[in-house]
Structure formats: structure tokens, C-alpha cells
Design goal:
Strand content: 25-35%
Strand order of the largest sheet: 1-2-3-10-5-8
Largest sheet: 6 strands, antiparallel
Oligomer: single chain
Structural class: alpha+beta
Length: 194
């Protein structure tokens, strides 16, 4: 329970800091990210429980990675993260899950995700900001990647990439769970408002 409270305080601090850096009011951030002002006020007070979709919309709007909203200060030159050390940000009804393992630093960060998709379970994603590129590498099993209404089968050993500014869905297909590594390449962040 203490870890959850600490994580929420980190998210609260990082959202507020990114909002101030971008020169946005609570109202403007809420309008752009399609999140209510009340939810933002609660979030910045380290209250509530934001879901993955909300964090993605806030990160996209603020021009930062999801993990930039969730992680504390870097602890050195090399960071090693195990899947067990990172709580899932999404879990499906059939046992699917997505874990944001880490985000690289720099002006155009890359998020590294680890996913498990159970057969027949899917995760529909909202379109991201322009310039976001996603890459999925299936390590075992098979998935159906739906981008802008078109289905693409991606099997173990295959990698697919696409522009993330279109509606997209990840679906487990086949008889076994699908395991994949996803990278989300983010464009450089916005310049602060004058």
C-alpha cells in the first residue's frame, strides 16, 4: 500500500512539473488531454487512481513519455529493470498485461513495454500525438495488430512498426499467449509556452 501511495505522489509531482514546464493551466491541459479538471486536480494532489488511457493522453498532450510521469529521478548511468519490479499498467479480464519497463532519456525518448496477450483478448489504444512511432516484436505466440481498421498478423520472430497517430488495437491470436516487446518512439517534447 505504501508503494502505491509513493507511486501516486511521483505521478502527481511529475504531471504538475510537466504541465508547468509546458505553460498549461489545469483547464487547458484537461481540454487538450480530454481529462476533467477535477480529475487533474485530484491527480496533482496524489489522490485518485488514473488508468493507463488517462496517463497516455496526459503524456501525449504534455509531450513526455508515460514513464516520465511515473518514474523518479534516474539513479545512475545504467538502469536494469526486471519485469517483477514493475507493476502492470493494464491487465485484461483473461490475464493479459502490459508493463512499462523503462523509458530512455533525451529529447526524443523511447518507451520499452513488455506485453502478454491471452488468446482472443485485445487492447484498443487511442491514437497518439503525431510523430509517435510504435514497434512490436513478437517473441512467442501470435498477435493481430489492427491499425486504422486493417488487420496484420504478427508471429513469433516477426516485428512490425507503424505510426501511432491512427487508432490501433493489439489482440492475442492463436492457441497460446502472445509475448511481445513494444517500443514507443516519442517525438521531441514541446517548447514551453511564452
Amino acid at each position: 500500500m505504501a508503494e502505491t501511495a509513493a507511486a501516486l505522489r511521483t505521478v502527481a509531482h511529475n504531471v504538475r512539473a510537466a504541465r508547468v514546464r509546458a505553460g498549461l493551466t489545469l483547464e487547458e491541459l484537461g481540454r487538450r488531454a480530454q481529462v476533467s479538471k477535477g480529475a487533474l486536480v485530484s491527480l496533482e494532489k496524489a489522490q485518485g487512481n488514473p488508468n493507463l488511457a488517462t496517463l497516455v493522453r496526459l503524456a501525449d498532450t504534455l509531450g513526455v513519455s508515460v514513464s516520465a510521469l511515473m518514474q523518479g529521478s534516474p539513479e545512475g548511468r545504467v538502469r536494469v529493470v526486471s519485469a517483477e519490479a514493475v507493476a502492470p499498467l493494464w491487465t485484461g479480464e483473461r490475464g493479459s498485461e502490459a508493463r512499462l519497463m523503462l523509458t530512455t532519456s533525451g529529447p526524443a525518448p523511447v518507451e520499452v513495454w513488455r506485453w502478454r496477450l491471452e488468446p482472443g483478448e485485445d487492447y484498443p489504444s487511442h491514437p497518439h500525438q503525431g510523430g509517435v512511432v510504435e514497434t512490436v516484436s513478437v517473441t512467442s505466440g501470435r498477435m493481430t495488430l489492427v491499425v486504422d481498421g486493417t488487420e496484420h498478423i504478427v508471429e513469433a520472430g516477426q516485428t512490425a512498426t507503424f505510426d501511432g497517430d491512427a487508432p490501433h488495437t493489439y489482440r492475442g491470436s492463436g492457441a497460446e499467449p502472445c509475448h511481445l516487446i513494444m517500443t514507443v518512439h516519442l517525438p521531441p517534447g514541446p517548447t514551453p509556452a511564452s
